[in-house]
């Protein structure tokens, strides 16, 4: 506790950095998944291709991705862009599959009836399919959020781990308290992000207080 | 170019054997992975099957998998090693702890995905609880059970990369050494090797997962109304395992 | 013979599904428990093979209390057919039919031979034996379910809304198949349904239940139809109004010896033999002749 007080500026700064570096992949992943998920749901071929590409990218361990991205992007190894891009790739990988499922979860008859009353393809997407896919999209976004916040700390090995710095520093100084503080603050950020997403979901999708998918199903998707 | 240099490093026979060679480090990586997975399976599978069969404790599964996903594995490993000291078993312990939640979740969700009516009717015609588990639930749940194992394996392989940071070897050692000495060729080579191992393991397990889908489940014709219940959603297969490490 | 003695069942969530229920189910007859959903009929059925144990009271089979019998061996000795067949999706039809014999150690060859015979019995082609359940139609799946129920040649066959999920034409098929089977096999059949028409068609004895498995009336279909015990039963079997009250359609042009019958709503329901245009037993030929057994409600078209 005393250490935390003495180093409050450091911890606060790292926390801000953590928030900053993880917000970009979360939002980026969400935005990217909308056209991708729609495409995947519309054309079976693109779905298979997307899932394969992102499946492969997602299988690559994060540290390996952090290290290889600089030579792909032409950046310096210590540039935070590398970590942000890597985490965005993971975010999209999680979201793409989830988004395809989300759009597939929109009941067929709802789409048929929207067609029947004369929606154009584009307006149907934004006014019918997108909102109805919302709950499943949100569930996947929550997985993305928690995962991104947690994974970011590995970036410390390439100089951009935000709170992960405390892990390395604490390890090198043989000082467990510092590591524990890093873990606790990471968890706090993860929980705060998650609660914000839940709140946004409640405001934007009042009809979905009880998600279409049971929490069990979400858990499985996230874990397995 | 770095990529070609890294490839050159990998294919150079001089780097294959020897104390710091690729092969011994690959073997170590596989050793860490195998041991951790073994421990995780011994604990995770029975627990997951019990929870799935009885339906009791599923809140535990949700809480467990949810909170473990948020836990920064890298920090946890370093934290534990400060108390236990360097060594194989602390690593195996941490990796196993990380792998248990997805294994439990896979086993639980696999059993949970089995149609209640099928189980009910198996019981009604006089199967014992063990027969229901062994002849009905496990065969039908196998794809999802393996999905959980697959996630766990990938998570272990990814996280075991950090072993190189805590005095052990494994393929992650190339990454750590490369970063430490600013020798990015070696770091890149390590990244390629770890990624290749992860992809190979994932591909292999995906294949196994396909093979164990019970025949009647995959071959269904589209005629019956209840068919959809037996379409295992592939969502979990390549799903969202966390690339820890 | 199956006897319920003052049986009650309160589930863990507090609902009293069955409240002090007593009934004698005669051997080699079909007894149908009928009532709307939630009346406890399925709970009653599941008490017979100990899928549910009563909270109080007891159930006997041929005078022996089943509470003392091990559930697994009891269940293996009783056939059970349920809605949506409950077949094992990962096993071929033949292995599904032979499930219980194989469990009890009958050699595979023998069990399979018997399973093939059972496919004949329930009117399925033997070529379906190597299919998986998902490759069959709903009606075929139900037939396999019946075959599986008969596999150990049980004295008792429990059927829990077995035809509830198939379309009306297939259902009628299956119902008549069951009547034929029962004529040949002479089992003690306990059948649960919410469909009163099905109950009257299949049951030697029909038991009409209300919430809590309270018996509103029991007896042969004709008794219940002729003398409903109370308003509820009359309403439930539809004898007071609608389609069970039939009368001759005077406006129909009936040539020959048939008269057209219409139901309470005026829809044609069938024809009745009437040599010379006169109903047998009818003294004269009044304007509207009620065919219902209930004389006090004659003519309420």
Automatic annotation (TrEMBL), chain A:
<feature type="transmembrane region" description="Helical">
    <location>
        <begin position="20"/>
        <end position="39"/>
    </location>
</feature>
<feature type="transmembrane region" description="Helical">
    <location>
        <begin position="143"/>
        <end position="167"/>
    </location>
</feature>
<keyword id="KW-0812">Transmembrane</keyword>
<keyword id="KW-0813">Transport</keyword>
<dbReference type="InterPro" id="IPR035906">
    <property type="entry name" value="MetI-like_sf"/>
</dbReference>
<dbReference type="GO" id="GO:0005886">
    <property type="term" value="C:plasma membrane"/>
</dbReference>
<keyword id="KW-1133">Transmembrane helix</keyword>
<protein>
    <submittedName>
        <fullName>ABC transporter permease subunit</fullName>
    </submittedName>
</protein>
<dbReference type="GO" id="GO:0055085">
    <property type="term" value="P:transmembrane transport"/>
</dbReference>
<dbReference type="Pfam" id="PF00528">
    <property type="entry name" value="BPD_transp_1"/>
</dbReference>
<feature type="transmembrane region" description="Helical">
    <location>
        <begin position="81"/>
        <end position="100"/>
    </location>
</feature>
<dbReference type="InterPro" id="IPR000515">
    <property type="entry name" value="MetI-like"/>
</dbReference>
<comment type="similarity">
    <text>Belongs to the binding-protein-dependent transport system permease family.</text>
</comment>
<keyword id="KW-0472">Membrane</keyword>
<feature type="transmembrane region" description="Helical">
    <location>
        <begin position="51"/>
        <end position="69"/>
    </location>
</feature>
<feature type="transmembrane region" description="Helical">
    <location>
        <begin position="179"/>
        <end position="204"/>
    </location>
</feature>
<dbReference type="GO" id="GO:0031460">
    <property type="term" value="P:glycine betaine transport"/>
</dbReference>
<dbReference type="InterPro" id="IPR051204">
    <property type="entry name" value="ABC_transp_perm/SBD"/>
</dbReference>
UniProtKB/TrEMBL annotation, chain C:
<keyword id="KW-0547">Nucleotide-binding</keyword>
<dbReference type="GO" id="GO:0016887">
    <property type="term" value="F:ATP hydrolysis activity"/>
</dbReference>
<dbReference type="InterPro" id="IPR003439">
    <property type="entry name" value="ABC_transporter-like_ATP-bd"/>
</dbReference>
<dbReference type="InterPro" id="IPR017871">
    <property type="entry name" value="ABC_transporter-like_CS"/>
</dbReference>
<dbReference type="InterPro" id="IPR003593">
    <property type="entry name" value="AAA+_ATPase"/>
</dbReference>
<dbReference type="InterPro" id="IPR027417">
    <property type="entry name" value="P-loop_NTPase"/>
</dbReference>
<feature type="domain" description="ABC transporter">
    <location>
        <begin position="2"/>
        <end position="237"/>
    </location>
</feature>
<dbReference type="Pfam" id="PF00005">
    <property type="entry name" value="ABC_tran"/>
</dbReference>
<protein>
    <recommendedName>
        <fullName>ABC-type quaternary amine transporter</fullName>
        <ecNumber>7.6.2.9</ecNumber>
    </recommendedName>
</protein>
<keyword id="KW-0067">ATP-binding</keyword>
<dbReference type="GO" id="GO:0005524">
    <property type="term" value="F:ATP binding"/>
</dbReference>
<dbReference type="GO" id="GO:0015418">
    <property type="term" value="F:ABC-type quaternary ammonium compound transporting activity"/>
</dbReference>
<comment type="similarity">
    <text>Belongs to the ABC transporter superfamily.</text>
</comment>
<keyword id="KW-0813">Transport</keyword>
């Amino acid at each position: 506790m005393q250490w935390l007080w003495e180093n409050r500026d450091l911890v606060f700064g790292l926390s801000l950095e953590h928030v900053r570096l993880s917000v970009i992949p979360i939002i980026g992943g969400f935005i990217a998944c909308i056209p991708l998920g729609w495409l995947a749901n519309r054309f079976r071929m693109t779905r298979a291709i997307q899932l394969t590409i992102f499946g492969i990218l997602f299988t690559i361990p994060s540290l390996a991705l952090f290290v290889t991205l600089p030579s792909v992007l032409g950046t310096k190894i210590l540039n935070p862009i590398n970590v942000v891009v890597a985490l965005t790739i993971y975010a999209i990988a999680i979201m793409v599959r989830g988004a395809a499922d989300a759009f597939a979860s929109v009941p067929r008859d709802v789409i048929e009836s929207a067609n029947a009353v004369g929606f154009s393809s584009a307006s149907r997407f934004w006014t019918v399919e997108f909102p109805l896919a919302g709950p499943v999209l949100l569930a996947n976004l929550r997985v993305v959020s928690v995962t991104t916040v947690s994974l970011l700390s590995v970036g410390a090995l390439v100089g951009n781990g935000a709170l992960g710095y405390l892990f390395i520093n604490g390890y090198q100084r043989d000082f467990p308290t510092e590591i524990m503080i890093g873990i606790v603050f990471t968890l706090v950020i993860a929980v705060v992000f998650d609660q914000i997403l839940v709140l946004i979901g409640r405001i934007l999708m009042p009809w979905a207080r009880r998600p279409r998918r049971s929490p069990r199903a979400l858990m499985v998707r996230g874990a397995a | 170019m770095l990529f070609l240099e890294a490839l050159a490093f990998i294919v150079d026979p001089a780097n294959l054997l020897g104390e710091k060679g690729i092969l011994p480090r690959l073997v170590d990586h596989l050793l860490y992975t195998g041991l951790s997975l073994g421990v995780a399976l011994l604990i995770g599978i029975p627990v997951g099957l019990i929870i799935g069969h009885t339906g009791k404790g599923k809140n535990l599964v949700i809480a467990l998998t949810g909170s473990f996903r948020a836990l920064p594995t890298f920090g946890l490993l370093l934290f534990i090693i400060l108390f236990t000291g360097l060594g194989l078993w602390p690593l195996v312990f941490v990796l196993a702890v990380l792998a248990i939640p997805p294994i439990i979740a896979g086993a639980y969700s696999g059993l949970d995905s089995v149609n209640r009516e099928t189980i009910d009717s198996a019981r009604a015609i006089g199967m014992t609880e063990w027969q229901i588990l062994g002849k009905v639930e496990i065969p039908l749940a196998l794809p999802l059970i393996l999905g959980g194992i697959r996630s766990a394996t990938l998570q272990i392989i990814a996280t075991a990369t950090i072993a190189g940071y805590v005095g052990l070897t494994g393929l992650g050692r190339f990454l750590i050494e490369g970063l430490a000495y600013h020798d990015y060729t070696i770091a890149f080579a390590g990244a390629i090797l770890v990624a290749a191992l992860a992809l190979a393991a994932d591909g292999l397990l995906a294949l196994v997962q396909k093979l164990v889908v019970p025949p009647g489940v995959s071959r269904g014709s589209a005629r019956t109304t209840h068919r959809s219940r037996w379409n295992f959603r592939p969502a979990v297969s390549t799903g969202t395992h966390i690339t820890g490490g | 013979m199956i006897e319920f003695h003052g049986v009650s069942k309160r589930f863990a969530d507090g609902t009293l599904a069955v409240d002090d229920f007593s009934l004698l189910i005669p051997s080699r007859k079909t007894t149908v428990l009928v009532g709307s959903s939630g009346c406890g009929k399925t709970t009653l059925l599941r008490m017979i093979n100990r899928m549910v144990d009563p909270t109080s009271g007891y159930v006997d089979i041929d005078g022996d209390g089943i509470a003392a019998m091990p559930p697994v061996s009891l269940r293996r000795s009783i056939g059970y057919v349920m809605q949506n067949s409950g077949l094992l999706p990962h096993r071929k039809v033949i292995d599904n039919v032979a499930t219980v014999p194989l469990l009890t150690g009958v050699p595979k060859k023998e069990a399979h031979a018997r399973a093939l015979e059972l496919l004949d019995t329930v009117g399925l082609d033997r070529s379906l034996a190597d299919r998986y359940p998902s490759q069959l139609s709903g009606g075929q799946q139900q037939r396999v379910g019946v075959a599986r129920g008969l596999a150990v040649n049980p004295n008792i066959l429990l059927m829990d809304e077995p035809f509830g999920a198939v379309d009306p034409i297939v259902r009628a098929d299956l119902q008549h198949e069951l009547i034929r089977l029962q004529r040949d096999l002479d089992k003690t059949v306990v059948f649960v349904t919410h469909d009163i028409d099905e109950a009257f068609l299949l049951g030697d004895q029909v038991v009409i239940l209300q919430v809590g498995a309270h018996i509103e009336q029991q007896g042969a279909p004709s008794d219940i139809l002729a003398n409903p015990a109370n308003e509820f039963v009359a309403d439930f079997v539809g004898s007071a109004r609608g389609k069970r009250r039939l009368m001759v359609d005077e406006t129909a042009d009936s040539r020959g010896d048939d008269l057209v019958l219409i139901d309470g709503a005026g829809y044609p329901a069938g024809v009745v033999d009437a040599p010379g245009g006169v109903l047998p037993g009818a003294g004269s030929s009044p304007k509207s002749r009620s065919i219902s057994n209930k004389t006090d409600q004659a003519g309420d078209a």
